[in-house]
Each structure stands twice: as structure tokens, then as C-alpha cells.
Design a protein that fits this description.
This protein is of the alpha+beta class and 300 residues long. The protein contains 10 helices and 11 strands. It is 36% helix and 20% strand. A 5-stranded antiparallel sheet has the order 2-1-11-10-9, with helices on both faces. Strands 3-6 form a two-stranded antiparallel ribbon. The N terminus is likely disordered.
């Protein structure tokens, strides 16, 4: 009798195997596509009328007044994954990065990106620095942080030092960096990361990048690559609320994370959600807090 292991796979069978391999790769990626599954409906509010937030830590702060609007474990120190890349962007801008200059993606960038999601920045190709910032903030490409650091004269070790100095300058005492991309280490709190987002959003260029839904960047090489990117912040695409920017992240220690800026009746609010168990939960949490806030404003 012919054993199953001895049978040759036909083209259709190989197509199935290849598709399964791609699906598995997506599941372990930093910002992998959501997997369709049956979920139990989550009530919008808790029994005491608060937003029914599922993330382990969350906060919403009125950026104009500094008033705390909502909080759940806001000062618990935890891993922050790729949300910390907003600090890389702020360091680069403070060091007056030349947005039109070119930086080549190197093996060092590839080394620091290992273990994260699939990168689309090809080693040996040059990119405009502004496009590296787009790749990092819009699509969370893990080869971008060290390349951006190099563009402003910093080695990976020096970049980490600058990230910590910036956190100290901003008065974020619980924010610590040990890695440029957030794949290994980097910790903070929901409160401190919401404050950091508010600072980053004051830079018009960074605010523009974090509000970009889709964009295509191109490398400068003998055979240029066109790379289409789509913002990983799903709430930005839904247009249900007036979302003005944000940054996503995921690692196993951090869970699914989201920094998000939005306006409610002209009132700027910055939020942070950390430690969600499922990919879409953080966006659902934002929706629940946003709906709750809108209802409170309507009642006034």
C-alpha cells in the first residue's frame, strides 16, 4: 500500500501548503492580519456605568486641561512593544534629521529587526529619511528605527541612550528603553505613554504621519522597490470617530497595544491601551471609551 508520506503533492496541494505557511507567518507577526473567529459580544459599559475596557491597562487624558477622563491600571509598568517608536521619531526630529537625505538599510538594521514582523525595507536599498519615518510610524517596520538613528549620527546603543534621555526630559520616570524597536524590552505605563503621544502630536510632521491611512514609498536603487503601506491603526480607517493619530504595537510580553489621539467636540484627547489579549480588542476598547465620552458630552 502506498503511504501518504510517499505520495507526491500536486500543484493544488502545494498551493494549500504555501497558503498555510503564509497564514502561520502572519499569526506570529508584530502587526499580523486579524484572524476571523467567533467572539462573544462585549457590553459597552460595566455595571457602574464605566467603559467596559478589556485591555489590562488604559487611560484617556484631556490634552488641553490635563484632566484625567478614564483610567484602568494607568501606572502599572509593563512592556510597550512598538508604541515606543514614537520616541525614536521625536529624537530624530529634535536632532534635526534631514527629511530628504537618503539612508541605506544595512545588515545592522536587519539584525535588530529579527524576531519581529515581516519587514519590507530591503537591505542595500536607500530610502529618504522621511519615508523611513513613514515606514516606522505607519506600518511599524522594525528595520527603520536603527536606520533613522544612523541618519542622525547615532549607533543603536547611542539611540537607546537618547531615548532614555528624552523620557527623562519629559518627566516620564517609569519609561525605560533597552531596544530601538521595542521587540526586546522597553517598558512604561499607560499614563506616561499617553503623555508621550501628546508631545509627539505637537510636531505637525509627526502628527501628519500618524494620521496617514495609506501611502507608497519607493527606494532609490538600480532596481527600485515600491512599497505600499497601510496604517496599522484600524480606528483611523473606520472614520467612526475623529481620530487624529496614534501608534500600535504587539509582542508576547506586551500583548496588543494602542496609542491613539482623537477629538471630541473640538476637545483633544490622548489615550493608551496596553495588554489586550486579542488583536481587535484594543480598537474595541477605544470605541467603547469614545462612545462613553460622547454620551457624557451630550448630557452636558
Amino acid at each position: 500500500m502506498e503511504r501518504a508520506a510517499d505520495r507526491k503533492l500536486g500543484p493544488r496541494a502545494w498551493h494549500v501548503v504555501f497558503a498555510a505557511a503564509l497564514a502561520w507567518a502572519a499569526l506570529i507577526a508584530d502587526e499580523a492580519p486579524a484572524v476571523a473567529r467567533r467572539t462573544t459580544a462585549i457590553a459597552a459599559l460595566t455595571s457602574d456605568g464605566q467603559p467596559n475596557v478589556q485591555s489590562e491597562a488604559a487611560i484617556a487624558i484631556d490634552s488641553k486641561t490635563g484632566k484625567l477622563l478614564y483610567a484602568k491600571n494607568p501606572d502599572k509598568v509593563r512592556a510597550i512593544a512598538s508604541t515606543g517608536k514614537i520616541f525614536v521619531a521625536m529624537v530624530a526630529r529634535r536632532r534635526e534629521i534631514d527629511l530628504n537625505a537618503l539612508t541605506k538599510i544595512s545588515e545592522i538594521d536587519a539584525k535588530f529587526a529579527r524576531g519581529g514582523s515581516r519587514t519590507r525595507l530591503v537591505v542595500g536599498h536607500k530610502f529618504r529619511n522621511q519615508d523611513l519615518l513613514r515606514a516606522m510610524l505607519i506600518a511599524s517596520d522594525n528595520r527603520a528605527p536603527t536606520a533613522i538613528g544612523r541618519a542622525v549620527g547615532l549607533t543603536p546603543k547611542e539611540l537607546i541612550r537618547e531615548l532614555n534621555l528624552l523620557a527623562k526630559e519629559l518627566g516620564l520616570k517609569k519609561t525605560k528603553f533597552t531596544d530601538p524597536s521595542g521587540l526586546r524590552g522597553n517598558t512604561s505605563t499607560a499614563r506616561e505613554m499617553a503623555k508621550a503621544l501628546a508631545t509627539a502630536m505637537k510636531d505637525p510632521f509627526l502628527a501628519e504621519l500618524m494620521s496617514t491611512k495609506d501611502i507608497t514609498i519607493r527606494s532609490v536603487a538600480q532596481t527600485p522597490h515600491a512599497i505600499p503601506y497601510r496604517n496599522t491603526n484600524r480606528s483611523l480607517h473606520s472614520e467612526r470617530h475623529d481620530v487624529t493619530g496614534g501608534k500600535t504595537g504587539f509582542t508576547n510580553p506586551a500583548g496588543y497595544c494602542l496609542l491613539i489621539a482623537a477629538e471630541f467636540e473640538g476637545r483633544p484627547v490622548h489615550m493608551a491601551f496596553f495588554g489586550a489579549k486579542e488583536k481587535l480588542t484594543r480598537f474595541g476598547d477605544f470605541g467603547r471609551v469614545a462612545k462613553w465620552m460622547k454620551s457624557k458630552l451630550t448630557q452636558k
